[in-house]
Amino acid sequence: MVDASNGDKPTPRPGDVAPIGTPGTDEVPCQECQGAGELMGKPCIACNGTGVVVREKI
């Protein structure tokens, strides 16, 4: 997701552990919604409805 108010840098999601594109990280399916992007018919708050979050590579 890109936010024009911050110079076209990707907007971090609540579940991200680092900014998108940080070396040593990767986008993985959200653990809260199992990658579905929603819980009980509403957008997941951990991934902002995207189904993915940034985590450290293991």
Which ranges are low-confidence, i.e. pLDDT below 50, for 5 or more consecutive residues?
A: none
Give the ordered list of helices and strands.
EEEE
Rg over alpha carbons: 12 Å
| Multimer state | single chain
Overall helicity: under 10%
Q: If you average the pLDDT, what whole number results? A: 83
How would you describe the shape?
A: flat
Can you describe this structure?
The structure is a single chain. This protein is mainly β and 58 residues long. It is built from no helices and four strands. It has strands at 25-29, 38-39, 42-43, 52-56. It has a two-stranded antiparallel sheet. The chain has a two-stranded antiparallel sheet with strand order 2-3. The termini are far apart.
Structural descriptors:
two-stranded antiparallel sheet, mainly beta, two-stranded antiparallel ribbon, about 60 residues, single chain
Secondary-structure map:
Layout: E1 25-29, E2 38-39, E3 42-43, E4 52-56
Antiparallel strand pairs: 1-4, 2-3
Give a quick summary of the entry.
This protein has strands at residues 25-29, 38-39, 42-43, 52-56. It has 58 residues and is mainly beta.
